[in-house]
């Protein structure tokens, strides 16, 4: 598991953050540091999902710093993000209008509203659309999506997944967080506490305080179960830049303490303003900052695998090899959500394994056996020790929860 950045990577990340800062703050982009390679910056921007922000900043630089070829690539990148953003917005509003027509109460979550906090909506990319709804209306929701040309993929303990190729992925949340999470009782009544949005009959929104709390809960879960990337820190900065003067801090502080993320919130807020509120990003490159910078967008697969592996091995007194086998042939408790027939007819569990591997091998083609085995077998006690020290520093107890990727 990679734990630290080398000197060149530190320079590249610092410049990347300053380019991002110039776009969100509307300031002049920084002149490239000596030795900066645009291909590396472009790759880092993609890794952290801040392509549009970086492209926008680069396109406003004096052209003596950017070759025509590089300029054209960044311009193409920004145009693509604008097109994706427009299509996403159009499709999402179609869904919300259909929900209005069918009297389905809902609250769009996360990226839907965060996009509106940025200077331009295409500056904040999203991989899917998350919407909270009442599980009692699940049948109506499925009918709406079917009429709109979406395919129902599966459901788990708190989400219903829908897809319309090539780019629309919708997660309908029956709850904001999993029922086994400590924050669940404090976040469970959002549909009743929310405010109706102008121009809609059944679409609602959270208060600024509750939106911020939920964002922190979601991001802190990623921190604990595989990593949270720089964009999550950026979201905190952008939101607070827009709303910090109007927030009810008495309510916020009580809720953050009850949920157990007060220490986490304080540290992330400090990092966010050091990175993005100043002309030149201030980075300590301590263990926390490096963990974030190395986490890409939503976390690292190798870290998440290490966490799940160590947790399973410790709780069940297993070996790394037995965990590897169970990851190849997952138990019924895991497979029944992707393949509901397993719950009704457990003896078909081997058939579900065939379905899963057939899809991954011949449809998704997302298998890398070499890295999969390496992630499960090669982590060390030192890796686990560092990870636990990060949790302790951020005020979390124990090892990350076992739902990486949700």
Average pLDDT taken over every residue: 92
Largest β sheet strand count, sense and barrel closure: 5 strands, mixed
Strand order of the largest sheet: 1-2-5-4-3
- The residue ranges in which pLDDT falls below 50 over 5 or more consecutive positions are 401-406
Overall shape: globular
Instruction: Tell me the number of helical segments per DSSP (H or I, 4 or more residues long).
Output: 20
How helix-rich are the residues, as a percent range?
A: 55-70%
Identify the quaternary structure here.
single chain
Please give the radius of gyration in angstroms. 22 Å
Q: Order of SSEs, N→C?
A: HHHHEHEHEEEHHEEHHHHHHHHHHHH
Q: Structural class, please? A: alpha+beta
Gap from first CA to last CA: 22 Å
Percent of residues in beta strands = 5-15%
**Overall strand count:** 7
How would you explain this protein's 3D organization?
Helix content is 58%, strand content 7%. The chain is α+β, with helices and mostly antiparallel strands and 406 residues long. The strands form 2 sheets. It has a 5-stranded mixed beta sheet with strand order 1-2-5-4-3. Strands 6-7 form a two-stranded antiparallel ribbon. Strand 6 (195-196) and strand 7 (204-205) form a beta hairpin. Helix 2 (38-47) packs antiparallel against helix 3, helix 3 packs across helix 4 and helix 9 packs antiparallel against helix 10. The longest helix has 34 residues, at 68-101. The radius of gyration is 22 Å and the shape is globular.
